[in-house]
Write a structure and sequence with these properties.
Radius of gyration: 18 Å
Strand order of the largest sheet: 7-8-9-3-10-11
Distance between the termini: 38 Å
Number of strands: 11
Strand content: 25-35%
Structural class: alpha/beta
Number of helices: 9
Length: 251
């Protein structure tokens, strides 16, 4: 079953067309990496798919339910209640962590399940502590974000996204704010999620990681999907632009 289906997605900012005609389907348990140069529309695609940006054309469905679609040339979004319900299908991990600085690690993770999903505090706490144990951060429950390394903060933000028990996780350049040493610990967590068959869509510039973890890799440039296929297909692509891009990042 397709967990996520994007058809002919378009997005403009003023005169600039950032996404031209993006169609993408992601099945349950699949890991899809999106690569491409800066300004190719990768992050905008994620922001539209997670309803942080309003699409200007096309349709978006989760588990067969349309949340955005076109009707008579107009873009329609499902009702607030429907959108809220469907939004629970996904979680998003940002590149800059986006943790609440005045909350402890534990409260950062518990906050949304309690306030959004109305999970009882005891259950939310147990869920949060289980995730912290899995991510090797159990001893950081009472720490504040400023007391953590960047890698630890990013692991907390992954735990926060997982606490809502989403069926698909989006990652927007999850390691771009980290130095190489800390990058490894975050990628290890994502690899473990892949082994557990978590459905993930990952915008990344880490080529070796994308090759290891992905079922499919998509190369974007200029607001369109230039090429997509298995890691082997992409890394042996005959497309000169794809070759050049991968070569630059691998060297």
């Amino acid at each position: 079953m397709n967990l996520v289906k994007i058809s002919h997605m378009k997005k403009r900012f003023g005169e600039l067309e950032v996404l031209s005609d993006i169609s993408l389907e992601v099945k349950k348990g699949e890991v899809v990496s999106i690569i491409g140069p800066s300004g190719s529309g990768k992050s905008t695609l994620l922001r539209c798919a997670t309803l942080l940006e309003q699409m200007d054309g096309g349709s978006l469905s989760y588990k067969g339910e349309k949340v955005v679609w076109e009707e008579n040339g107009k873009v329609i979004t499902a009702s607030h209640a429907e959108t809220k319900r469907i939004s629970r299908t996904f979680g998003l991990v940002f590149q800059n962590f986006n943790l609440f600085p005045h909350y402890t690690v534990l409260k950062n993770i518990m906050d949304a399940p309690v306030s959004v999903d109305k999970v009882p505090k005891k259950e939310a706490r147990e869920r949060a502590m289980t995730l912290l144990r899995q991510l090797g951060l159990e001893d950081k429950a009472d720490a504040y974000p400023y007391q953590l390394s960047g890698g630890q903060q990013q692991r907390v933000s992954i735990a926060r996204a997982l606490a809502l028990q989403p069926q698909v996780l989006f990652f927007d350049e999850p390691t771009s704010a980290l130095d190489p040493e800390l990058t490894g610990e975050v990628l290890k967590v994502i690899k473990e999620l892949a082994r557990q068959h978590m459905t993930m869509i990952i915008v990344t510039h880490e080529m070796k990681f994308a090759k290891e973890v992905s079922d499919r890799i998509i190369f974007m440039e200029g607001g369109v999907i230039v090429e997509e296929g298995s890691p082997d297909q992409l890394f042996t692509s005959q497309n000169l632009r794809v070759q050049e891009f991968i070569g630059k990042l691998e060297s």
